[in-house]
Amino acid sequence: MALEDLKALIPDYAKDIKLNLSALSREQGLSQQQLYGTLLACALASSNATLIRHLHEEAAAKLSDEAINAAKAAASIMAMNNIYYRFVHLSSHADYKTMPAKLRMNVIGNPGIDKVDFELYSLAVSAINGCGMCIDSHEAVLRKGGLSAEAIQTAVRIAAIVHAVARTLDGEEALA
């Protein structure tokens, strides 16, 4: 029901976004935990309160408390890591690449759910946040963990659609 309510908020000019969002609920390439955890992590990364509320409600009906916490943790830790590692990647000074980050990231080692699922959430959030270094790192772990290129692409497609919904809702809320 939450997903249907969310789709009703998307204006006619963004019909393609609405159709893409509708198609996600029929996605076959990911487990339910991967799909709904990625949706929630991406909603949190996209920062639109309306989107977060609707996708949290949708995810809560499908995920364990541990998976919901892991999606929240992925969005949170990647908010920090994506800024730091994007800087390291974009800086023209090589010194930063050899310096320790000095950032606590314990949740990555112990996310409370299957590591591959947490890495998938983290990859999708990293795509939203535009961190190439993090994208490469998470994609390598996912491939090593047995995820196919199609499954990884699906997570990034989720990120793109969720982010587009967030920006559309932001625009509509600003104009209201």
UniProtKB/TrEMBL annotation:
It is an enzyme of class 1 (oxidoreductase). Antioxidant protein with alkyl hydroperoxidase activity. Required for the reduction of the AhpC active site cysteine residues and for the regeneration of the AhpC enzyme activity. The active site is at 131 (proton donor), 134 (cysteine sulfenic acid (-soh) intermediate). Its EC number is 1.11.1.28. Residues 95-173 form the Carboxymuconolactone decarboxylase-like domain. The keyword Disulfide bond applies. GO terms for biological process: cell redox homeostasis; response to oxidative stress. This is Alkyl hydroperoxide reductase AhpD. Belongs to the AhpD family. InterPro entries: AhpD, AhpD-like, AhpD_core, CMD-like. Disulfide bonds join 131-134. Keywords: Antioxidant, Disulfide bond, Oxidoreductase, Peroxidase, Redox-active center. GO terms for molecular function: disulfide oxidoreductase activity; hydroperoxide reductase activity; peroxiredoxin activity. SUPFAM superfamilies: AhpD-like (SSF69118). It catalyses: N(6)-[(R)-dihydrolipoyl]-L-lysyl-[lipoyl-carrier protein] + a hydroperoxide = N(6)-[(R)-lipoyl]-L-lysyl-[lipoyl-carrier protein] + an alcohol + H2O.
